[in-house]
């Protein structure tokens, strides 16, 4: 460019030819909200158990969630998807759930992890089916991201089981309550 000419920055926007915008918006919005909420859950657990023997395990899972959130932040910009208006609520609710479950001890925190990650893995599987039905080639990149994250969420679920989640008092009640909350959060975040 000549002197004084402004450089136009390159866009990180994805070409959206033939993309089902409504489906993509819903998927990216809810997954961003979910990863945001997961980060807040692990932040709450670390606030209570960070210096305990299970702290490094929680930190490892949290680090993966941080990379998931970073990727969905990028996808929101690339696909021009607005975040859910419920993020301020998920900020508080996620931290309270994480800290509250951690106050029950290591087993309580792991029970929360199992409940949440089982719900999220199921949710990601539903999204994978939707995108494959739409057009697996067109949504190849997004499918790869969701499959990778689903596998990592399943690993977190399994880590929770390995760390005695099922030995938590009233485990099935706690798990059911958390999963109902997850389903409500998914439903609302897809739409609002």
Write up what this structure looks like.
This protein is mostly helical and 192 residues long. The chain has one domain (21-190): Ferritin (Up-down Bundle). It has 6 helices and no strands. The protein has helices spanning 21-49, 55-79, 87-103, 106-134, 140-162, 171-191. The protein is elongated, with a radius of gyration of 18 Å. It starts with 20 loop residues before the first helix and ends with a helix. Mean pLDDT is 93; it is low at 1-11. It comes from Cardinalis cardinalis (Northern cardinal). One of its GO terms (cellular component) is mitochondrial inner membrane. Keywords: Iron, Membrane, Metal-binding, Monooxygenase, Oxidoreductase, Ubiquinone biosynthesis. One of its GO terms (molecular function) is 3-demethoxyubiquinol 3-hydroxylase activity. This is COQ7 protein.
Topology:
Blueprint: H1 21-49, H2 55-79, H3 87-103, H4 106-134, H5 140-162, H6 171-191
Report the top-level CATH class: Mainly Alpha
Domain count? 1
Rg calculated over all Cα atoms: 18 Å
Provide the β-strand percentage band.
under 5%
What share of the residues lie within helices? over 70%
In total, the number of strands is: 0
Total of DSSP H or I helical runs spanning 4+ residues: 6
Low-confidence stretches: 1-11
Query: Could you say what the CATH architecture is?
Result: Up-down Bundle
Query: What is the N-to-C order of secondary-structure elements (H for helix, E for strand)?
Result: HHHHHH
| Broad shape | elongated
- Helix/strand/pairing class, anyone? mainly alpha
CATH topology: Ferritin
Q: CA-to-CA gap between the ends?
A: 44 Å
- Main sheet? none
Mean pLDDT reading: 93
């Amino acid at each position: 460019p000549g002197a004084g000419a402004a450089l136009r920055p390159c866009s990180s926007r994805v070409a959206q030819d033939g993309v089902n915008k409504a489906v993509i918006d819903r998927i990216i919005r809810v997954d961003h909200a979910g990863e945001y909420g997961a980060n807040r859950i692990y932040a709450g657990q670390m606030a209570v158990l960070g210096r305990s023997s299970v702290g490094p395990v929680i930190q490892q899972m949290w680090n993966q969630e941080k990379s998931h959130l970073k990727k969905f932040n990028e996808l929101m910009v690339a696909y021009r998807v607005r975040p859910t208006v419920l993020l301020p609520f998920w900020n508080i609710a996620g931290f309270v759930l994480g800290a509250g479950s951690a106050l029950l001890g290591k087993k309580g925190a792991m029970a929360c992890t199992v409940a949440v990650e089982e719900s999220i893995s199921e949710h990601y599987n539903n999204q994978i089916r939707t995108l494959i039905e739409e057009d697996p080639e067109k949504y190849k990149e997004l499918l790869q991201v969701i499959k990778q994250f689903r596998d990592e969420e399943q690993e977190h679920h399994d880590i929770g089981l390995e760390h005695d989640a099922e030995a938590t008092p009233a485990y099935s009640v706690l798990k059911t309550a958390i999963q109902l909350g997850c389903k409500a959060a998914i439903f609302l975040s897809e739409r609002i």
